[in-house]
Queue: 2 jobs
Job 1
Amino acid sequence: MDSDTLLARITDYASRPDPYPLYAELREAGPVARQGDGSYLIGTYHDIAALLHDPRMSADPRTRGETTHKPPFLRLDDPEHHRLRTLAMRPFGPPHSPGRVDAMRGEISHITEELIVALRDREQFDIVDDFAYPLPITVICRLMGVPREDEPLFQAWTDVIVASADIGPEEDTTQRDKAGIQARQEMGGYLVNLAEQRRGQPGDDMLSAFINEPDPALRLTVEELAENAILLFIAGHETTVNLIANGVLTLLRRPDQLDRLRREPGLLPQAVEELLRYEPPVHMRERIPLADIDVAGTTIPEGSSVILVLASGSRDPKQFHEPDRFDPGRPDNEHFGFGSGIHLCYGAPVARLEAQAALGALIPHLGTARLVQDPPPYRQNAMLRGPRHLPIHL
């Protein structure tokens, strides 16, 4: 089939249960596949890696005049990106030393056990709604200092924000974009107001750390505080829901590997890395060249939309042995599950801890479980791919 329709076929909801044959087609089409809408798809491991580390590739939508609003640092370039990312990472603790995330390890285990206990007497439940969603939202709300009674507010906001960030050849995204802006404003306003309540009266939470930064030169503006608190919330929550749900789905489809992890629990950290490669929570990222760029003999013009298909790169047979095989013991697993380069997902340490805790708690109970529906219903989003529901029967 024509490679210039790959983006349309990948983002078609019918492809959501299994986009991997299309990714193989993308790799076979060559390192660069120009699309009918003028965008360029990149699906090979080494070319994706090179572009993620190329300073000529911008993440900032303002380079194409798409918006005048300053985006969060995930969509900024250095030096702005470096300054804001450094500030945002400070509450996690100094590099190479125990920080707030490590201190949450026991809390994450406790929240996980509470959820398991609540499900123990049920014959059927939804992994997404009853486990994969409440775990990370509870963890990130506690990290941020959000009162427990306000946690439900964030589900509606994040659903709209994530939908507005999707990638696809849609003709008109006006309504989707407008809804995303409104949700960001409401969520940002809530988080800024909550932070202001902690000014001069800090608690042991990240909003307190942001608002009470002692160095005036390092303090976040109100706009920066809002945008980056939202980003931390999304990065520390949305990807984890997909990672846990994709992990349970993968293991229930492979009872031999589920049994292996039950017998060898020490493999769990490696298994999470393999899940990040095999069924990643993030499938694509967009970049914009600041100059004409040559990729494997193809010139990509300045200002073009370049879509790096990370999930395709993580299944590139030139990088991974038997890439379509799920191997919890896979060595040297340099995947793109959280991206790479300066924009490596900064919610990754939290997501890894949560996934290890979640799967570690679930695996002993999955031996008698079966999927109620396979494939399950998926979220609309092609970029952040995962089941919308994952009902299982015990």
Job 2
Amino acid sequence: MIIPYGWSRGLQHDFEPFAALGLVPARVIVQHRGSYRLMAEAGETEAKLSGRFHHEAPDGGHPAVGDWVAIEPAEGFALIQGLLPRRTVFLRKAAGTGNDTQVAAANVDVALLTVSLNSDLNLRRLERYLAATYESGAAPVVVLTKADGCADVDGAVAQVQAVAAGAPVIAVSAVSGLGLDALAEHLEPRRTAVLLGSSGVGKSTLVNALAGEALMDTGAIRDSDERGRHTTTHRELIRLPSGALILDTPGMRELGLVDAEAGVAAAFAGVEAEVEALAAGCKFKDCAHGEEPGCAVRAALADGRLDPARWESWKKLRRELEHERTKVDPLARHAQQREWISRMKSARAHMKDKRKIE
């Protein structure tokens, strides 16, 4: 039963130390608060963490949907005794929880970044999802839902492609069937896809359309702001008739990035390359592209050669990552303080020289 859920020779190799202890493999297909539903070789089983594993697992080390675990079968609930190494992991900062890290999905091959073609189309939020996906190791595919209600689908696709960093962009309609065949090409048997996006973008409706039956509850969006309520309240891994695996997740309007420097660089590769080329023409080598005179980057922003919205989004995500890093890294915080002091001294010296000239 576990081969259709992605079990492989590589996983079998990783599992050998657990097999020596008499444990058996299983994949997490549903995650509830305090309990799990697993797919094991003998079929589905309910499970909970063993006391030892619960207390010894590090932050982010508890199983999430998509994880492969080592279990000890028992009456009622199987006991999860270990976690296999993750091939890919989608991390997020849990909203309002300090430095807590949450695993949104594990061992995912493809991330379907769902955005609704209504008034809630938000390119800045999409950039966050792209950065997190590139950092996870999964391949992003941008899915524009509710295309049947959009007056200019081609225009919307072009707008999204401009920020998609080369990821495929597919407009779909669960009502008319538009784009479903193109999307299905990215969903292969035994490979896992995850649906990510805000509430109301049509993730559950899309799962039902791909499955050909009503597997997930769906709900209407609010007329006031065209946003939806949470119809998916837990994460669940579903096997489609095609043999592909798809993971539906609750809507996440806020997405705090975790250690995603490489992901941000990949999502904004064009911006970074452009800024680097422009910076060579700045008057000062250490130009921060703020109020310094002779800044080539600010000139490009002013005349439209550099997209101001993309620039500000890139800077915002970089500041966010730096802030999170300095909160937990005293050396990084000290280095940042030294940089600020150096910049202040440079600015004061510049103003002093300017006054002398005047």
